[in-house]
Amino acid sequence: MNYGEIKKCDIANGEGVRVALFVSGCRHHCKGCFNSMTWDFNYGKKFTEETEEEILEALKPNYIDGLSLLGGEPFEPENQEVLVKLLRKVKERYPEKNIWCYSGYLFDEELKKESRARCEYTDEMLSMLDVLVDGRFEEDKKNITLLFRGSENQRLIDVKKSLEQGQVVEWKPAIKRGL
Question: Which of 58, 111, 161, 164 is the most buried (most CB within 10 A)?
Answer without folding.
Answer: 111
